Amino acid sequence: MDWMLEQGLPPCKVSLKERDLNGKTIRYVVASEDLKPGDLALSVPMSLVVTLERVLGNETIAELLTTNKLSELACLALYLMYEKKRGKESFWYPFIRELDRQRGRGQVAVESPLLWTSEELDEYFTGSRMKEVVLERLEGIKREYQELDTVWFMAGSLFKEYPFDIPTEAFSFEIFKQAFVAVQSCVVHLQGVSLPRRFALVPLGPPLLAYKSNCKAMLKAAGDLVRLEVDRAYKKGEQILVWCGPQPNTRLLLNYGFVDPDNPHDRLSVEASLNTRDPFYQNKRIIVQKNNRLTIQNFQIFKGREKEAVLEMLPYLRLGHVSDPYHMESVFSAEGPTCPVSACNERAVLDQLAQYFQERIAKYKTTIDEDRALLEDCSSDINPKQRVATQLLLIEKEILHNTLDVVNGFRNQLPDGSVAPPCCGDFVPKLK
């Protein structure tokens, strides 16, 4: 704060507080006076914001780099790593020191799973696809690390003030990964600005500002300032919240190290695909395309909207199960849960869905009740990583159980005696 004030930070209506959380000291932004909705809480000059405009200084180079092999996050991380090597000579020294202290830990003092050990990923994410998400992102970071020298050679003149080796010789992958995660945890996506200003590291921004999924306030660019107008009333000393965008909890945990139980954007995905061994595959492929679907289609199951998701999936799966060309065109024209083919075909579809969700639920090591009991236990000896992972898995299980209940409800509406036909079992759609 002292550094920002010295560098021209305009008067603002926020201050910093500290609290101990999970054995770590967390700093966070609070209202320094009572605020009402629409009040301007803070304005940060662009001269105190780290963007690609400052890093590369050239919009053409910025666009070339970020549309090929390197992301904005990788370029920002590389820039700050070189600046860190300059020590107190760097203009950004106070900001970098705070980023180092934070070490990518979010608002609950838990670092991104990208920095967890393999053993922790195995232990805490059993049954969840979160581990796959983490490993895929790590592979992406590794590819970017291997391309870092590109920015050095393409924009070498911009790095002439750094008397150090080229990136992959100056920094190990582990150092780059830590820097990447730190940048990822606090980068702000500014709207309505040029490409070099789109991704910004804003002092007093996240993670000092806490993210909330149902908040409407966000940092916005206005000329040479980044401003924050609050969307709700705050009493002096209350923590300031900002919107994190429409991100599911997997992204919130991956990027910022926390899970939001009230996240209206949380969802699970189900991948359904037509079976290429089906003798009617080509006919069905044409039909799904006419109905704005793909041969490999992702369906999103939003928390609280599980019935909508099942109703969206049913026509696609009905088509996959149909073995009579006469009925193929009609499956997408049915309204609601009514099957235009037969009760037996519907039984096959719903049985497959039920088995799929049962198998996904069975992969978890713990039940919903066990997860709730752990989260209600406030003892300090519970691993913070385990706690936040359990929050994620509990929500996943609730979505899966709710969806299974919807499917079973439809099954119970079928006529007694309807039996799934065994004839086309080898050609049914695949669910993943």
UniProtKB/TrEMBL annotation:
- Keyword annotations: Methyltransferase, S-adenosyl-L-methionine, Transferase
What highest taxon heads this organism's lineage?
A: Eukaryota
A Gene Ontology annotation in the biological process aspect, one of them, is: methylation
Alphabetized InterPro entries for the sequence: Rubisco_LSMT_subst-bd, Rubisco_LSMT_subst-bd_sf, SET_dom_sf, SETD3_SETD6_MTase
GO MF entry, a single one: protein-lysine N-methyltransferase activity
Q: Where is the Rubisco LSMT substrate-binding domain?
A: 276-400
Q: Which residues cross the membrane?
A: none
Q: Which Pfam families match?
A: Rubis-subs-bind (PF09273)
- Quick check: keyword Transferase in the entry? yes
Question: What name has this protein been given in UniProt?
Answer: Rubisco LSMT substrate-binding domain-containing protein
